[in-house]
Design brief:
The protein is mainly beta. It contains no helices and 41 strands. The N terminus is likely disordered.
């Protein structure tokens, strides 16, 4: 028997308490000066590799601020490739592996990196035409590559807008709806939650348009333009915000902008302090963004510096559908997360006055995710009367934030649903409903072999009330099951007819 006492559904954005909107220089990239590289993160580590005619691959540990060289990329040395991660694996593909006379040698091979084994495995070649300067990102369990330059001529670029989805479970590529903007190369792409984004880039001129991709509908919708058009920029996402900056405007740039999908708007943030640059690498680890390497222009001046960005509002987790309800003699607390990043655990705290809270128990986080995850905790010993609960979120650095407080009242010694008289008399069943919330409730009466005798929807005004159930046919002698559902409860009563 469960009694729903309080249901709070909200979208509560947790904010970290560390320094805000700041750039901090970290250890220089371990592989030295490099341009045209790719970068991504897997769990709590970052990775940068390949680059103009290079194939070395490096891991960054933010907790120790150190770089460690890993197994070289499995394919040919290359620059201007695409990289992203899906779950616990990283992926690199496409790119330019050199030149043949005046013309580029472009590729479409695609490789998977396993950090646990430190190995590369070749996977199915990219489904589209070979290309370089494309865009790649992942959404949930799928990867995506699109746009880019498919020309094999060094002086005559051929821009494209086709867009492809990679499924690592089946090692297959499927072409999806073409990118919503014009064909282009050197754009920026990233994902926020269940949506992907592509913007800026070069399509005979620098572009400023910005588009959202919905994989569920396979559709593109144009969002607000990036404030200043550019190409060869970088981008990343942290929590529910996206970031684009640097690149080429009228010369190399260092300005940066934050995109908020909730408001569909852009806000200028502190400019990148490493100086203007062309084609830097960008990715995020937990609630921090990282930008580094690149070049001073399109003709050389490679760089090796590496910087960490702390957003003004970092968003490690989004809590939704938080519920607290009485279950037998205790209280069940349920919550879901739509997005998790760098979270260590959740602690549930309780109070009888909403002022002094005590620790109840903890639930470990399930790991970085952009899909809905469900959590629950049972309090076997709630206070008599009013109870208050809150959820404390603790990230991997030890910082903590709190949810809103949930208030509920424990009713003891009150039966929520009573059937009387029982055994029933005649063909009428009388229900006494006690202390139930206002709302619609479903009544189902079934016989002992599971056949439904009657279903009925009751519009309950709240509190206590009497309801009468009259089956359309005469009830035979026997034992029946009556189920009441709605408002988060599921109550079963045995009904006897002599």
């Amino acid at each position: 028997m469960k009694k729903l006492l309080s249901l709070f559904t909200w979208l509560f954005i947790m904010q970290c308490l560390n320094a805000q909107n700041t750039w901090t220089r970290k250890a220089d990239f371990g592989g030295g000066y490099i341009d045209g590289a790719v970068g991504f993160s897997i769990g709590s580590k970052g990775y940068i590799g390949t680059g103009w005619l290079k194939k070395d691959f490096w891991e960054y540990n933010p907790s120790t601020n150190t770089w460690t060289q890993k197994a070289n990329f499995g394919g040919a040395a290359r620059g201007y490739a695409v990289g992203f991660s899906i779950g616990s694996k990283g992926y690199i593909g496409t790119g330019m592996s050199g030149v043949s006379g005046p013309n580029p040698v472009i590729t479409k091979d695609f490789w998977e990196y396993d950090p646990a084994a430190n190995t590369w495995t070749r996977k199915a070649d990219f489904g589209g035409t070979a290309r370089f300067w494309a865009v790649g990102f992942s959404i949930g369990s799928k990867g995506y590559i699109g746009t880019g330059d498919i020309s094999s001529s060094g002086s005559n670029p051929v821009f494209t807008k086709d867009f492809w989805e990679y499924d690592p479970a089946t090692n297959t590529w499927i072409q999806k709806a073409d990118f919503g903007g014009t064909a282009r190369s050197v754009a920026v792409g990233f994902s926020i939650g269940s949506k992907g984004y592509i913007g800026t880039g070069y399509s005979s001129i620098n572009t400023e348009d910005f588009w959202e991709y919905d994989p569920a509908a396979n559709t593109w919708v144009q969002e607000a333009n990036v404030p200043v058009g550019r190409s060869n920029a970088t981008g990343f996402s942290v929590g529910t915000k996206g970031y684009i900056g640097s690149g080429f405007v009228n010369g190399e740039a260092r300005d940066f902008y934050e995109f908020n999908p909730a408001t569909h708007g852009w806000t200028a943030i502190d400019s990148f302090p490493g100086g203007p640059r062309y084609s830097p690498v960008g990715f995020s680890i937990g609630n921090k963004g990282y930008v580094g390497v690149g070049s001073l222009d399109n003709f050389g001046g490679f760089l090796d510096d590496f910087w960490e960005y702390t957003p003004s509002t970092t968003l490690p987790v989004t809590l939704t559908n938080v519920k607290a309800y009485q279950a037998n003699a205790g209280v069940q607390i349920d919550w879901t997360t739509q997005q998790e990043s760098n979270i260590e655990k959740y602690e549930v705290e309780k109070s009888n006055n909403a002022q002094q809270f005590s620790y109840l128990a903890s639930v470990p986080a399930k790991g970085n995710s952009s899909v809905i995850l469900k959590y629950n905790l049972f309090d076997p010993n709630p206070f008599a009367g009013v109870n208050f609960y809150r959820i404390k979120t603790i990230d991997k650095s030890g910082q903590a934030t709190y949810s809103e407080v949930i208030k509920l009242n424990i009713s003891r010694g009150v039966t929520l649903l009573t059937v009387y008289p029982n055994p029933v008399k005649g063909n009428t069943i009388v229900l006494q409903m006690n202390n139930l919330q206002k709302g619609n409730y479903n009544i189902t009466l079934s016989n002992k072999i599971g056949q439904t005798i009657i279903t009925k929807v009751i519009a309950h005004a709240g509190g206590s009330a009497t309801q009468t159930i009259e089956p359309g046919k005469v009830l035979a002698a026997g034992v029946y099951q009556l189920r009441l559902t709605g408002g988060g409860i599921n109550i079963i009563r045995q009904v006897i007819k002599n």
